UniProtKB/TrEMBL annotation:
Stretches with biased composition (Basic and acidic residues): 898-908
Protein name stated in the entry: Type I polyketide synthase
SUPFAM superfamilies documented for this protein: ACP-like (SSF47336), FabD/lysophospholipase-like (SSF52151), Probable ACP-binding domain of malonyl-CoA ACP transacylase (SSF55048), Thiolase-like (SSF53901)
Pfam families assigned: Acyl_transf_1, KAsynt_C_assoc, ketoacyl-synt, Ketoacyl-synt_C, PP-binding
Domain of life: Bacteria
Domain called Ketosynthase family 3 (KS3): residue spans: 1-420
Stored SMART domains: PKS_AT, PKS_KS
Keyword hit for Transferase: yes
Keyword Nucleotide-binding recorded: no
Record's keyword terms, sorted: Acyltransferase, Antibiotic biosynthesis, Phosphopantetheine, Phosphoprotein, Transferase
Lineage: Bacteria, Bacillati, Actinomycetota, Actinomycetes, Kitasatosporales
Chain segments carrying region Disordered: 883-912
Length: 1017
């Protein structure tokens, strides 16, 4: 069969909270078995050493910690629904999310896709506890139970459209789920498959059954193939893998843990008992799997056995394996079983074994098996070509083949053949990009649905990064691609991993710093590029960025190549050499153009697409290029000619900055043919330009009137009547070059407004550009009025954003974000990275590949998402000798004392909504609505601020809306018989619902609503 790649893994097993801890447990031959937690049942009450009827012979087992913890706010599930859900559903939801992240995909990217979900499960004890409590069965109890919902929950919350099914074949359930997932990929039913298994023991029922059937180990431990083997010990766990066709995974540059070469499933049929293993069926399923994988039995280096530690089960399995491997001679196949570490995880047993095999192939070592030191001589392992691993087995060679068995108690057997990932896929080559990129410093990003979640995950990422020797580039590139999609966007630049770890921890510890490094965009940003004009230049400008950023170097070279035929000397070399000639007009103008063009194109390559463009004076030439009005070669010729012709003009002109508006100056220059208004940079920021003698006379008058002035250090009187002598020659060149209509909105500093549709930046425009005043303030005012959210200054230093800050009219901190990719002479890649981080926080979705060099675009394993454990949900009833659950039993939210403070903090930011200020609204209708919403969703009334959205924030669905309608009719008069159709258009938020009901004439009988009484109703 076509090979299937395992590209993502997540799991929780006894003694192991995640995949890394699981591998550590296996490598140190750890024991995850311990006493039955009191959260499940009182083991001593059910214990009888003799295994009396209705009792268990053990008080031990393998149990996961904190199965009651669930981050319902992350999945927008109401507390009431969360409390009703089988904990197996909750564990699978979180595990599936983390497995998809581990595959290198943000889970949101799968939304709407035909991704399949296949879940193995054999226990349904939550339903046994709650569906028999008839007086308390609710809609949530119904949807919170049932095998199908374990898979369907994942499909629903990740919005997956492919096949979604739960499989119960008893102990082989999760490996059969993997078999079905692989076949769905092969038949192209889906391109991505999520396969897993789960088992949580809530009652002693199966323990009693194992005891009565003579299958239970007194110490609660499985001892596979050991002379000490004395039965099954129960275990719990959850595991999920993400599968893809190998060719697709390799094409997308995903890391591959291992490859599934072939799987097979069969049945015992009518054998010597429905629960007894059948040797012949087992050897047949092995043969079928080998055949589908295209391997011989002798190719298999090791097998993860079913290995429960029962006398009959171990014997049958060894004989079935021996049928295929007895002829191996002096090279026996290694054999083990993870059940020795965990107990028998039942519905999760197959996935536990699969993950162990995949990790063994990935790490090139097979862990030793617990209890292998006392091998069961009766099994005659050597005669069957087998050996137990008493020490870890190092795997050599490029292609190692392994087997995995999982046999169901009812006779459904499964086997899988796996192989180590191909060399080119095990450590994927750098993901290709159209051109080699890189901006100098890496940008690490992280998203979360709330500030508390963000802080928690920053610390998780910092802790993991601190323990690994991975460069900051690949770590950050992986974070950009995987940790995306939530409302709160964190971004920070770093030059190495140590700096990144320090910054992550600092942000998590400092709320003010975290706020500065986090954005919560509510819509698509409108980004304006502002191109700096003459006067901002300095020797060596952008040399640091050129040194650090391969991306910028490429675009500066492109501009330099276009300018060289017209300048006769390299502008790039002039810049990098720190030549003071940059202040000569013939060099200033082409140099500023080259910098503006290269920086603008760099940002475009990074995915920062401008919505509005504004250039100050010569900054408009780069604007014309980026807007599509001028091709690069034409703009280069025009700007080089402009600088050269201006340089040739006689000296003697000057420029005067005046703290006054245009209207105040027009009368002073009206009768002066040699002086004009050169620029209007703000309400009280203008520039006069022209003959020096006339300027001195005007300056004296201004000073007498108390107006502040400042002489500018320039070689010529730009934008003045003194530019006249160059216009004829420049007009000829402009006529040859031409110019077209911009493809993007351009706010012209010549016109002082946005260019109209069809208005070209043609020869006439560029000729007028020479001597016309720069109407920057007018054009910038329109940019602000047209909704720019980010002002990005494209130039060697932030000049224009400083001018805009002086416009006034907005309070400090309000208005568009002002971003400078280059901040001055010392700027390098760090400033560009900081600018990209700020834009990401504001809602821009960059082309991250362009920000990294080839060797940095390699997937790295990041810390999985750290879910909150503040909220606890468990059954109110702990099983007792009384048998069935009492009629008062129902799921409850458990708040442990040591978690109360954290939970209070968490409630201040429910489900990713920014902390809201609660008004002192004691309106009885509002209180009644809050009480009804709280009762339906399981929220406390004080949490239900008006801004909360019922669907997005509180997790309401159609069933809950129907119940809400009934609750409102019980509490309010004057609204008649509400229909769901009446409510649906007005359910965007709690406040909207209150307003609608008030409009309908709603009232509370007697106006005597008690918030406390309603909340506890």
């Amino acid at each position: 069969m076509e090979p299937i790649a395992i590209v993502g893994i997540d799991c929780r097993f006894p003694g192991a909270q995640d995949t890394r801890a699981y591998w550590d447990l296996l490598m140190r031959s750890g024991d995850g078995v311990g006493e039955v937690p009191r959260l499940r049942w009182d083991a001593k009450e059910f214990h009888s050493a003799a295994g009396a009827e209705g009792h268990t012979n053990t008080t031990e087992g393998g149990f996961v910690s904190d199965p009651d913890a669930f981050d319902n706010e992350f999945f927008t599930i109401s507390p009431r629904e969360a409390a009703a859900m089988d904990p197996q559903q909750r564990l699978l939801l979180q595990c599936a999310w983390r497995a998809v992240e581990d595959s290198g995909l943000p889970p949101q990217r799968l939304a709407g896709s035909a991704t399949g979900v296949f879940v193995g499960i054999m226990g349904n004890e939550w339903a046994q506890l709650h569906l028999t409590d008839y007086d308390n069965v609710t809609a949530q109890i119904g949807s919170g139970n049932g095998y199908c919902m374990t898979a369907n929950r994942i499909s629903y919350h990740l919005d997956l459209k492919g096949p979604s099914l739960a499989i119960d074949t008893a102990c082989s359930s999760s490996l059969v789920a993997v078999h079905l997932a692989a076949n769905a990929l092969l038949s192209e039913e889906c391109d991505v498959a999520i396969a897993g298994g789960v088992n949580i023991a809530l009652t002693p029922a199966l323990s009693i059954f194992y005891t009565q059937a003579g299958l239970s180990s007194p110490d609660g431990r499985c001892k596979p193939f050991s002379s000490e083997a004395d039965g099954i010990g129960r275990g719990e766990g959850v595991g999920v893998v993400v599968l893809r066709r190998l060719k697709d995974a390799v094409a997308d540059g995903q890391r591959v843990y291992a490859v599934i070469r072939g799987t097979a499933v069969n049945q015992d049929g009518r054998s010597n008992g429905i629960t007894a293993p059948n040797r012949w069926a087992q050897q047949d399923v092995l043969a079928a799997a080998y055949r589908r994988a295209g391997v011989e039995a002798s190719d298999v280096a090791f097998t993860e056995g079913h290995g429960t530690g029962t006398a009959l089960g171990d014997m049958m399995e060894i004989k079935a394996l021996g049928h295929h491997h007895a002829a191996r001679g002096g090279k026996p196949m290694a054999l083990g079983s993870v059940k020795g570490n965990l107990g028998h995880t039942e519905g999760a047993a197959g996935i536990a074994g699969l993950i162990k095999v995949a990790l063994s192939l990935h790490h090139k070592v097979v862990p030793a098996s617990r209890f292998a030191a006392k091998e069961n001589a009766k099994l005659k392992l050597r005669d069957h070509g087998l050996r137990l691993l008493k020490a870890p087995l190092k795997l050599g060679g490029d292609a190692v083949v392994a087997g995995l068995s999982s046999f169901g108690m009812g006779g459904t057997n499964a086997h899988a053949v796996l192989e180590s990932a191909p060399v080119h896929a095990a450590r994927p080559a750098p993901r290709p990009a159209p051109e080699d990129g890189g901006i100098g410093s890496a940008v690490f990003t992280l998203t979360a649905p709330s500030v508390a979640a963000l802080r928690r995950n920053l610390l998780a990422q910092a802790d993991t990064a601190a323990t690994r020797r991975v460069p900051v580039g690949p770590l950050s590139w992986s974070s950009n691609h995987v940790k995306a999609g939530h409302r709160y966007r964190f971004a920070v630049s770093a030059s190495d991993t140590a700096e990144l770890v320090a910054k992550l921890r600092a942000a998590a510890d400092d709320p003010d710093l975290l706020a500065r490094l986090t954005g919560t965009p509510t819509g698509r940003p409108r980004t304006a590029f502002l191109f700096t004009g003459q006067g901002s230049q300095y020797a060596g400008m952008t040399a640091g960025l050129h040194r650090d950023s391969a991306l910028y170097r490429g675009f500066l070279d492109e501009a330099d190549d276009a300018l060289l035929p017209h300048t006769g000397k390299s502008v790039r070399d002039l810049l990098l050499g720190g030549d003071e000639d940059v202040h000569l007009t013939r060099w200033t103008q082409p140099a500023l153009f080259a910098v503006g063009y290269a920086l603008g194109r760099t940002l475009e390559a990074l995915g920062v697409r401008p919505d509005l463009l504004l250039g100050h004076s010569v900054g408009e030439f780069a604007t014309a290029c980026l807007s599509g009005a001028l091709p690069l070669h034409s703009a280069a010729r025009l700007i080089a000619a402009r600088g050269e012709l201006m340089q040739e003009l006689p000296e003697g002109g000057g420029m005067l900055a005046v703290r006054a508006g245009r209207e105040d100056l027009e009368s002073r220059v009206a009768e002066e043919p040699l002086v004009g208004i050169a620029a209007v940079n703000g309400p009280l920021a203008s520039v006069l330009s022209g003959d020096l003698t006339v300027l001195e006379r005007i300056e004296d008058g201004l000073r007498r009137d108390g107006v502040r002035t400042r002489r500018l250090k320039v070689s010529h009187a730009f934008h003045s009547p003194l530019m006249g002598p160059m216009l004829e020659r420049f007009s000829e060149i402009a006529g040859e070059v031409g110019g077209g209509v911009p493809e993007l909105p351009v706010y012209s500093s010549v016109r002082g407004r946005a260019l109209a549709d069809g208005e070209a930046m043609d020869a006439a425009y560029w000729v007028a550009h020479v001597s016309s005043p720069v109407l920057f303030a007018d054009a910038a005012g329109e940019v602000l009025a047209d909704g720019a959210t980010h002002l990005v200054e494209i130039g060697p230093s932030p000049v224009l954003t400083t001018l805009i800050r002086r416009f006034g009219g907005t309070p400090p901190g309000a208005g568009p974000a002002q971003i400078a990719p280059v901040r001055g002479a010392d700027s390098g890649g760090q400033d560009l990275s900081d600018a990209l981080a700020a834009l990401y926080r504001g809602g821009v979705d960059p082309h991250w590949d362009a920000a990294y060099g080839t060797q940095e675009r390699v997937p790295q394993q990041l810390a999985p998402y750290a879910f909150s454990d503040d909220h606890r949900y468990w059954a109110a009833h702990i099983p007792t000798r009384g048998g069935a659950a009492p009629r008062t039993a129902r799921p409850v939210a458990v708040q442990e004392p040591e978690q109360q403070h954290t939970a209070e903090e968490s409630r201040s930011e429910p489900t990713g909504v920014l902390t809201l200020t609660r008004g002192q609204d004691d309106d009885p209708v509002a209180l009644a609505v809050q009480a009804a919403v709280g009762q339906v969703g399981g929220y406390s009334g004080e949490d239900l601020v008006p801004q909360l959205r019922l669907y997005e924030d509180l997790g309401f669905d159609s069933v809950m809306i129907m119940e809400l309608k009934n609750r409102l009719e019980e509490r309010l008069t004057g609204i008649g018989q509400l229909t769901v159709q009446d409510l649906l258009p007005r359910l965007s938020s709690v406040g909207d619902l209150v307003s609608f009901l008030c409009e309908q004439g709603a009232a509370v009988p007697g106006h005597a609503v008690s918030g406390h009484e309603e909340r506890t109703a």
